[in-house]
């Protein structure tokens, strides 16, 4: 069942989204060659807890860190540690915030210094796919319209969308109904209504859409070793379309 959120509930999630966006901004400012991924984790955790919130990923289903840091062929759920960032890599950072009983969730992919042209294009296409998806959000449209525009845009640009992972509803739980695939036919399934809150998150691979899980049981990687990018916003359906609740400051 999809739970419609009240204006008060959306206000709480909006506040959490501001904390999350500022945490991501802090992480972005520290992404450079030579930085250890565990340092990014520490910075984000310290900032979030300093705002009276909790890093929502820490301990979630056993996840050992406060943020996910996924590099190059890692799609999502990378565990921060002693790995050092290197010039030319791309880094996907996924952050969750829990405060006052509600969650917010967002992700960005950042360059480490100067990156190759094709890496830059992958990042730009993934970011634009999220923007086009959000632009499709309007009461009365179908959830699959969001899925379709992501797939169509990504594939027109020569990349592929991950099919085994999805966006999701969010609120009192990190993952609620509905699921939001990044592929599909338009005009099907759930009709969008005011008060729906969900996280749209294109995960885009430079090669095949197929993925595997590493031996740590968390880190998802592209099966063919190609690069992957990830962008995500938590947003609410309003009478005027989508309101992004995790905008950058």
Keywords:
single chain, 249 residues, alpha+beta, 5-stranded antiparallel β-sheet
Q: Would you kindly provide a written description of the structure presented here, covering whatever features stand out?
A:
This protein has a five-stranded antiparallel sheet. Strands 1, 2, 4 and 5 form a four-stranded antiparallel sheet that branches. Strands 3-12-11 form a three-stranded antiparallel sheet, with no helix packed on it. The model has no long low-confidence stretch (mean pLDDT 98). Helix 1 (7-29) runs antiparallel to helix 2 (37-50). The protein has a single domain, classed as Creatine Amidinohydrolase (Alpha-Beta Complex), CATH 3.90.230. The chain has helices spanning 7-29, 37-50, 117-135, 143-156, and strands spanning 54-55, 67-71, 74-76, 90-99, 102-111, 160-161, 167-169, 176-180, 197-200, 203-205, 211-213, 220-222, 228-230, 233-238, 241-244. Strand 11 and strand 12 (220-222) form a beta hairpin. It is of the alpha+beta class and 249 residues long.
